[in-house]
Amino acid sequence: xxxxxxxxxxxxxxxxxxxxxxxxxxxxxxxxxxxxxxxxxxxxxxxxxxxxxxxxxxxxxxxxxxxxxxxxxxxxxxxxxxxxxxxxxxxxxxxxxxxxxxxxxxxxxxxxxxxxxxxxxxxxxxxxxxxxxxxxxxxxxxxxxxxxxxxxxxxxxxxxxxxxxxxxxxxxxxxxxxxxx
Length: 181
Known about the structure:
Layout: E1 2-8, E2 12-14, E3 17-18, H1 21-30, E4 34-38, E5 44-49, H2 54-69, E6 75-79, H3 80-88, H4 93-98, E7 103-108, H5 114-121, E8 129-133, E9 136-140, H6 149-153, H7 156-159, E10 162-166, H8 167-178
Antiparallel strand pairs: 1-5, 1-6, 2-3, 4-5, 7-9, 7-10, 8-9
Helix pairs in contact: 3-8
């Protein structure tokens, strides 16, 4: 058995309807996943499953989600080792220590090419940062701008399937999978 992290792109089902984490956990257990745990109410799962292709695990989860909740949601899965490497590769440790909610990573299904990230930098304010690390996009958002242009610019149309998590969530997920290694 291997430990995995699954990140749901969106858990909003419709106006005023969100996925309840207990229901998400039950859905995952219904697939035969073991030791299923959730982290905060934004669609983060940690679980154990037989080692296999990540893409097949993503497809199983997405199909089960659509069957259970009536809506397709993109789900990104990473193995525990990959998640710990992503966490350790945070290029903004000082900013993360000061303002963990202003540092985020857009975890991608497919690696983003470097030239695409260069275009994203054009949307960053002077006090914002963008870096590509192993195909994922790390961002430091401005606390001065509650509606950063980076949020809108780092989207599916431009970069493909991915989902963002702030440093606080990345760190807590790393702690969860690290304790299972």
